[in-house]
Write a structure and sequence with these properties.
Layout lengths: L12 H22 L4 H21 L2 H8 L1 H29 L16 H8 L5 E6 L5 H16 L3 E6 L5 H6 L8 E5 L2 E5 L1 H4 E2 L12 E2 L1 H13 L4 E7 L15 H9 L2 E7 L10 E5 L7 H13 L3 E5 L7 H11 L1 E3 L2 E4 L10 E2 L2 E2 L6 H6 L5 E2 L4 E3 L5 E8 L5 E4 L18 E2 L3 E8 L7 E5 L15 H12 L11 E2 L9 H31 L2
Parallel strand pairs: 1-2, 7-8, 7-9, 9-10, 10-21
Antiparallel strand pairs: 1-3, 3-4, 5-6, 6-22, 11-16, 12-18, 13-15, 14-17, 17-20, 18-19, 20-21
Helix pairs in contact: 1-2, 3-4
Length: about 525
């Protein structure tokens, strides 16, 4: 009996064209999914695929019949459908896992998660928020910021972010008026809030005897900024003019142009006002900084009406040069704060200036962040404050001088000359109160005030020294009632290195190089032996 072997002499070219056409169809679909903006190319690839399929069927008309009737073709179709079904199930499970995922942060301080407060803010966004972070590529801080912003993006489709390397993209950096590496800009429509690096990373002072761990408070800073810019309201602050005050747009040493820029970046609407023209109804905060000329009784009446009737907030910074008896009387009668006619002297001659004073903090929300960062404040030409408790006001001193400071009084008796030696007859030893925060209660409820015994620390020459700018911004934010907007605990950044001795290193080497491969060989051998006997 002879066996006849059937030889397939059908041409192979149509089959190759069929495979190429099917490949082109799949490539067109993938291109459209990956690059939806370049749909023309996807259509071109699809056209090439269809053309190849038509050419294959023209060259071999029986190919289509064989594909539809051959048992082998149906087996291939069955296998393809099975594979596509498995892939589809995987894609569906991945989509469900992405939409309904569960993640857990195993780090001790939850470095890679955001708080419930932030999640609530993000899911309640009504407008699009754009965050631009200016950090160099490859830095550790850049990775931490990017991971944090990714967590924000996971919570809302209205949140977008971009990391810009200031060295590689100076055009964008200049266009957004960024002058410091580590700046994060939060924008929503026309509102903008700038966050500086020292507000995100709290680095310990290396000169302190007790070393502290660095802290990361990026979530607190960014979430507060998001709430700020999405509130839809720019807080209005007016600086009183007309009494020799330093100008808000003046760039000399005594001017306040630097403070003006800080306020703009904090999303404040800052301007100047003459009390003789009245204060607009949308003004939340009225600031009086270093006046040198007397106030008219009518202006005092405007101040009184702003504080008592309209429940406005008052910011006052007066140095030793201020001689405005009407204003001083208004402050003492209203708040119970007396500005002493004196000049504080620092025997240690801080910064080679005997009138320079570095205050100490007493706990208050205004200075809480600076206490955590060990950020100091420098004042010059300071006068002390006496605090008298008033029935309708709660006063909290938050700045005071050290015990070594003493006050020179009766300066006019010596012709304005100041001697550095302590005079027991006229001088007074410290400590002295230098800053007071007041909150109204009872009939004065709803209004706040902050009073400083110095104004030079707000000037252009001292604004960026130590934490002067932070102190001012914290004071203005507290007056506006936004200091408790978001309160999230800073996270400690600790690096726990793995230290291996020689025995531990040898055990790891044996497990990885010997035991793991041997285990794979044993499992493979067992499978081979069991299949050999089948």
């Amino acid at each position: 009996m002879t066996t006849t072997t059937r030889i397939d002499r059908s041409p192979i070219a149509p089959l190759l064209l069929l495979l190429a056409g099917l490949t082109a169809l799949v490539a067109a679909a993938l291109w459209y999914l990956m690059f939806p903006s370049k749909v023309t190319i996807a259509w071109s690839i699809l056209g090439v695929g269809v053309a190849l399929l038509v050419l294959a069927f023209i060259l071999s008309p029986s190919l289509l019949r064989d594909l539809l009737t051959s048992r082998k073709s149906w087996l291939w179709i069955n296998d393809v459908l099975l594979v596509l079904g498995i892939i589809g199930i995987g894609v569906l499970l991945t989509h469900i896992a992405h939409r309904r995922n569960f993640r857990y942060d195993f780090t001790r301080d939850q470095l890679f998660s955001i708080s419930d407060k932030t999640i609530k803010v993000m899911r309640g966004l009504k407008s699009d928020v754009m965050v631009t972070a200016f950090y160099p590529t490859g830095a550790i801080e850049t990775g931490m910021i990017k991971d944090l912003l990714e967590e924000y993006k996971r919570q809302s489709d209205r949140f977008q972010y971009k990391i810009v390397d200031p060295r590689r993209d100076p055009v964008t950096t200049k266009a957004m008026n960024v002058t410091q590496v580590g700046t994060v800009i939060v924008q929503c429509e026309t509102s903008r809030k700038d966050i500086f690096e020292h507000e995100i990373f709290i680095r310990p002072n290396p000169y302190l005897a007790r070393q502290e761990t660095p802290k990361f408070q990026g979530e607190q800073a960014i979430t507060s900024a998001i709430v700020n810019v999405t509130s839809g309201v720019r807080r209005k602050i007016q600086f009183v003019k007309g009494h020799g005050e330093p100008g808000l747009t003046v760039f000399n040493q005594r001017g306040l142009a630097g403070l003006h820029q800080y306020l703009i970046k904090e999303n404040f609407d800052a301007g100047e006002v003459s009390l003789t023209e009245g204060v607009s109804t949308d003004t939340q905060i009225l600031a009086i900084v270093a006046p040198e000329q007397a106030f008219h009784p009518g202006e005092i009446s405007v101040l009184r009406e702003f504080v008592n009737t309209r429940k406005g907030h008052l910011f006052v910074a007066l140095d030793q040069r201020t001689k405005c008896p009407e204003l001083l009387k208004f402050l003492s009668d209203t708040y119970g704060i007396w500005f002493n006619d004196e000049l504080l002297i620092n025997p240690q001659a801080a910064m080679q200036s005997p009138t320079a004073v570095v205050p100490e903090y007493q706990y208050h929300r205004i200075v809480q962040d600076q206490m955590q960062r060990n950020s100091g404040v420098l004042m010059d030409g300071v006068r002390g404050l006496n605090v008298e408790n008033k029935e309708n006001w709660t006063s909290t001193p938050f700045l005071r001088s050290s015990d070594g400071i003493f006050a020179k009084r009766n300066l006019l008796a010596n012709g304005g000359r100041v001697t550095l030696a302590f005079d027991p007859q006229n001088d007074v030893r410290g400590p002295f109160t230098l800053g007071v925060a007041l909150e109204g209660k009872g009939v004065a409820s709803g209004t706040r005030a902050v009073l400083f015994g110095d104004a030079d620390f707000a000037s252009n020459v001292l604004l960026q020294v130590q934490g002067n700018g932070d102190l001012l911004m914290n004071a203005f934010n507290w007056l506006a009632g936004q200091e408790e907007m978001i309160s999230i605990r800073p996270k400690s950044v600790e690096f726990s290195p793995v230290i291996l001795d020689q025995d531990a290193a040898n055990r790891i080497l044996i497990i990885c190089v010997v035991v793991a491969p041997l285990l794979v060989l044993l499992i493979g051998g067992g499978v081979w032996w069991s299949r050999r006997r089948v």
